[in-house]
Amino acid sequence: MISKIKGEFLHFKTMPHGMRVLLITNMIYSMVLPIIEVFVSAYIMRSQNDPSLVLKYQLAVFTGIPITFIVNGYLLNRIKVAHLYSLGMLLSGVSMFIMMFLDNLDLTAIIISGFLMGLSYGFFWSNRDFLALETTNDENRNYYYGLETFFYTISAIIIPALVGALFFYTNEFNWFGGGEVISYRLLTVLVFVLTIISTVIIHRGNFKNPKLKKFIYFKFDQLWNKLLVLSALKGLAQGYLVTVPAILILKLVGNEEALSTVLSISGIIAAITLYLLGRFTKPNHRIYIFAIAYIIFFIGAFIHAYLFSALGVIIFILSKVLYQPLHDISYFPIQLKVIDVLSEKENISEFSYILNHEFGLYIGRIIGIGLFLMLAVYASDIIALRYSLIIIGIVQLLSIPLAKHIINKSN
């Protein structure tokens, strides 16, 4: 076993230096994402008991992201990409600080902190995608995203369990005065520490900024337009996956401790499977992984809608834990391969495609959240929580033949 681990470490060391630095940075920051994505929504739900406020927070987040992508494009002509990447990570802590340390969490505070979190994601994802594109090639991208999703999956298992323990001991032994608010504030401090460590590590890489004389375009090759449709289908579920699970668990399962247990229950087997997929699969296997991801999501959404109970929520969360990394390990290499091909064909900067892709995601996110809010307003919160996910799951199955067509055209 030790020799196998050593062999994998030696294989990691054969990768380009920039790719290794980026992976280590993302490994540290991956411990922040479960806190941001799950427990911020749980905090809003705990404070206000209003699912629509959680969705409004997420709308503010998603609105901030594409705006920041544009701002980031201008700043890349003046500021190092590593600095902007660091800014994105640090802003996530600032956003949490505003929300967790306010005595009165009203709609204005929720919108402001959500927009700041959107700025954080915008700087993080726009520069992360560019650096991933620049430090990898089509042959090692399965490995890159396999290892990265391995980190994210491990964090999605371990961090919620540790957070659950923090909530338990803070309340049980009256640490720092006890109570959920203290626990959430301690989480904010932890986020700040982890983002600072990530910032230090990313500056160990020697990354070059893209040359961006012009980066905003409105007309692209037909192949890119098809990828934008694929990105919109991906965006449909994104708003749900960072908000609805927390709402469902608090309504149907229990409290934050239960939330942590459910998110950790998938175990370490899923993470090891993802690492092996990234280590040994080839570009021609991506469509199979992609299809499996969407089928798993659909099955989980269907069971949740059918049962609409604590068991149904647990099964859906398990499907989510499997769907997200399987999707990422296949979707991102497909996206970057298309960018590789078209940036050379159209003589357009790679960042232009990254920026444009974000607006495809944004359209899908707005449609998805709009569906939830429409069902909540014209039917009820219960109808929205029960049936919106299955509607999304059915529509997303269209992604499978579209992704197959895009892969064939980009080869």
UniProtKB/TrEMBL annotation:
Keyword Translocase in annotation:
no
What InterPro entries does the entry give?
A: MFS (IPR011701), MFS_trans_sf (IPR036259)
What would you give as a GO molecular function for this chain, any one? transmembrane transporter activity
**Transmembrane helix is among the record's keywords:** yes
| Keywords, sorted A to Z | Membrane, Transmembrane, Transmembrane helix
Q: Which residues cross the membrane?
A: 21-45, 57-75, 82-101, 107-124, 145-170, 182-202, 223-252, 258-277, 289-318, 359-380, 387-407
Q: Which organism is it from?
A: Polaribacter reichenbachii
Q: What is this protein called?
A: MFS transporter
